[in-house]
């Protein structure tokens, strides 16, 4: 249970990456498009550098939380990054949110609170590790196929200049990449802790695939 509590704390702390993204967004307003010649300007921008530092730090803390929490618990907590981003945007960026937006924020907070109150430690002694590996493998294979189909849809939408559909396909691709990536990372990191030599080899492959999925999302 102690590992689960620490995992929840790390998952919540990892949401500083959302603040980092907001700072990067503000920082680039004063900067040209990023390329080899403008990179020096980005590196000298204190706001952009702070943003990317927080973004990377949050990602690393989130990675640590996945080693302690099942993905079914970690992923909803990660979604609360939207709550952090909404609060930061309102207080720091002075952006206004409507009643519907604040209602969504309240639901995210309520959902995470309910997860915290119902959290239970995982009894790995009763888990069929081989079946778990197979299920995660199937999920990752299906994710690749789905991403390919979404890419075809996005390309067709671009050719038809259907901006809304292009954004829908691209956003869905990003969600699939992040979800599949976190699944691979979460399962892989958990199995690295409890598995034997053979299991750890597969677990390491899941971690690498998870990192690939997470870094490959298009938005």
Q: What does this protein look like?
A:
- This protein is mainly alpha-helical.
- The protein is 79% helix and 0% strand.
- It has ten helices and no strands.
- It has helices at 2-13, 16-28, 39-43, 46-66, 71-79, 81-91, 99-117, 129-159, 163-194, 197-216.
- Helix 8 (129-159) runs parallel beside helix 10 and helix 9 (163-194) packs antiparallel against helix 10 (197-216).
- The longest helix has 32 residues, at 163-194.
- The radius of gyration is 19 Å and the shape is globular.
- The protein starts with a helix and ends with a helix.
- The model has no long low-confidence stretch (mean pLDDT 80).
Keywords:
219 residues, mainly alpha, 79% helix, globular
Give the structure's gist in a few sentences.
Helix content is about 80%, strand content about 0%. The protein is mostly helical and about 220 residues long.
What topology does this entry show?
Layout: H1 2-13, H2 16-28, H3 39-43, H4 46-66, H5 71-79, H6 81-91, H7 99-117, H8 129-159, H9 163-194, H10 197-216
Helix pairs in contact: 1-4, 1-5, 2-4, 2-6, 5-7, 8-9, 8-10, 9-10
Estimate the mean pLDDT confidence.
80
Order of helices and strands: HHHHHHHHHH
Terminus-to-terminus distance = 35 Å
Helix content: over 70%
Radius of gyration: 19 Å
Anisotropy-based shape: globular
Largest sheet, in brief, is: none
Low-confidence runs of at least 5 consecutive residues: none
Number of helical elements:
10
- Give the DSSP E fraction (strand runs of 2 or more residues): under 5%
Instruction: Supply the helix-strand structural class.
Output: mainly alpha
Give the strand tally.
0
